[in-house]
Amino acid sequence: MEQEHRKHTLLFGFLVFGLTFLTYLITVAPTVAFWDCGEYIGASHSLAIPHPPGNPLYVLLGRVFSILFFFFNQVAYRINLISIFAASFTSLFIYLIIVRAMVSWMGTPQEQWERTTIYLSGVVGAFFCAFGYTFWFSSVEASVYIPSMLVVVLCTWLAVVWAQSKDPSRDRLLILFAYVAFLGIGIHMMSMLALIPVFLFVLISDQTKLKDWRLWISCLAMGAVIYNVALFFWLGPITIVITMIMSLMEKKAKKQWRLCFWIAFFALVGYSVHIYIPIRSALNPIIDENHPVVEVDESGSIDWGAFRYFLERKQYGSESMITRMFHRLGAWNKQFGIDGHMGYGGFHLTQFFHFGRSIWTDRNDTVVKNWGMVGGFLRLFLYLIPTMVMLYGWSYLYKRDKKMATLLIFLFLIGSVILVLYMNFADGTRPMKREYEAWVQNGRHGDMPLQHREVRIRDYFFTSGFMFFGMWIGIAFGCILHALFTSKNLFYRKQLAPVLVILFAASPALPFSQNFTENMRRNDWIPYDYAYNLLMSCEKDGILFTNGDNDTFPLWFLQEAEGIRRDVRIVNLSLLNTLWYIRQLKELEPKVPISFTDEYISSRLVLKLNPIEQSVQYKMPKANIPVQLPGRDTKQLLRVQDQMVVNIVDANNWKKPIYFAVTVSNENLMGLRPYLQMQGLVYRCLPHIVSSEKAVNLERTMFLLNKVYRFRGLGDSKVPLSETTLKLVSNYSASFIQVAITLQQKLVKQAGRIEKLELQLKDTTAAKGDPIAVAMQKDLADQKKLYEELEKQYYPIIEEKLNQCIAIMPWNWRVRMLQQQILLDQKKFDEALNKLNEAKALEPNRQEYLQQEARIYYIQGEKVKANAVLEKLAIQEEDPWQAYAMIAKNFEDAGFIDSAIATLHKYQSMHPNDKRASVLISQLMVKKEVLDTTRQDSNTSL
Question: Which residues have CB under 8 Å from 731's CB, separation 6+?
Fold first, then answer.
């Protein structure tokens, strides 16, 4: 039976691997994705150093995949395959863990119902893991999280195999576990999640190890890597030396000391992959974050401060994550409840299905807010069914195998609830402890220094929790089937259990169907094209200032992996606050002009109190332009990046074209705003003040939009758009809108000239045949002719650009509203209404569309229709005052004063504290009295 069981286990395991691999292969991104993916791909292909702590094993794997799959044109696609293989193997090991967990208390399956229960629970659990939203999302892009999940499940599987093994030399599996776990740190620190649960599992599974103080001390010494890398670098070698000596000297406990030695030795060997970091950094690759080299000075002493700083992630703060967690940076209801960026509750509930138009809507608002009280609680109950199923599995398994249940429960908790406490995400309402204390000590000057809210959706941090969530659903289904098949009730055994087998077998179709569209990246070229368009906006040898990850990392990928526009030097403003980055910009080709000396950069370039009390004009000596530098009232602290922006622009002296991405905010420009001209997705810095008429370089922008930019995947309903994508591609609309507005303003300006001439001609006292009047009439005729020519020239372009923008961004209501407004200006009411109806087909309840519809009807004089629209609007708006006021105004204009007053009374009854209605009612009452008096006087005279 054992051999048959092994055969069935392998057969279903291959099924799990094959189907998950095929699913991911169908949905995988063809190229780079937003956020860290571009950095990881660029660093992997060029063997560089990504952000701390460097992920050296992932970089090396990426390089191997880049070479191995050379026959795929896209480097990004080759490296995306790492996630596909890792995710598929992770699903396979989840299946194997479930099978072993079930066999541990059911025994090797002999009966058909036993085989059905065990294998079905394994397959279902693996699929729920694989098709969960968060796991799937990271499985189809170049992500470090999925390979680290493979490390976690592999370590868990090794621990389970060790516990179930009867081999006298089974402790070799613990040595392998130590090697894999510490090697996995080279992918991501998340690989360490299995350390504590597995350590406790080993102790409760083997009483000799529970009482072995040697193992306790050795494992705690090696586990220091979680808390303090520097401490680990001392304790690791010391542990190896001591355990080696004791294993040679001690006779009674020789076996125990030898186990401790090999565990410590192979743990350090696994961690040694990090040696890659200083070796490669010393060769100065372009992507070389923190420049974490180990240097030997003239005296022969080793300086590894930069390397240690890098591994300990000091760039993101010096405080330990463990001590940091005791000062909460967010409200409990935000961290554990519903919040679009960080709320674990919303992430947990929507893993396998969601009810809203998109998963984002359900994660951003509570079910009560989305669906009302009754509908909300009904949906909440449905959302909680997977959790209730999991809790049932906890209880059932714990009664039959406490050790296994403890391990698997702890693995879920440490990847979910405990991780919420540990990560301590900020909701933007509370300060960091250190910054708060400094603020108090300095007299509480200015606003409290709040830690900014998490800038992106953080569900990927809980990938391990959701992975084990899916696993537990499979185990729970197996427990339910076991309870039914072993029930004394014949109905349960013979009728209900077979039905549930079918239902459970079909259940993975729910997360598959719900998350397939959300995670379909097959045609998603949007991040690639966004980076390409940004780079191509710059002329040769340009310097491009960027704002954050998404206008930097994809560009690095294009330059380092694809070799596109390597002449453009990216200057990331966030990194510009670090000295190592400034030195790289100054020293590595293509070099950025920087006039600060190395000594000045090292000793004097620091964050400091703004020395300028009031805004002052400063003339750049080399660039020869005056800029208005901000004073302390608007910028209290002068960041390094602020000083560097001024220095680079000045030192460049217009030798290289300088650009700012449109994502860069005004506060980062250091008075350069008057010198910026929009050219597509960038602002070019010019050596003179740019007039409002030339704020947009129409010729360059039109060339970029028509001939250069790529918009693949945009406007395609097959490509799901994430919150990040929607925000970034909205920058495209700015180019289209500015083209339309600039051209329209030219027409408006020309129309103004005509209106001015008409007024002058009307007011002139000259006789008809007077030369002055004749000249003015001729000028007017010429200006009207010019307007007609400009109208024929510009309106087709305006229409073309707006239609093009709507085609690639049909959801962008601002572009649609501008299009309708321009049509109204041309008095094309029917066409404006048709365009409005097209927009309403996508978003029938958008308030801006309803307001515009009411306005069109009002302009056309159809006030009854306008009021009908406004009544709909009044129901939807949180503050319906404008809608009610417009309805009342329409009634007033039509002469129905009583109806206008009744409308305002209705609003007043719903908002008794709002005085605006009272004022208008009083005015209408006065008007009504005047009209009534006029009517009475008229009747009397008759």
Answer: 662, 663, 681
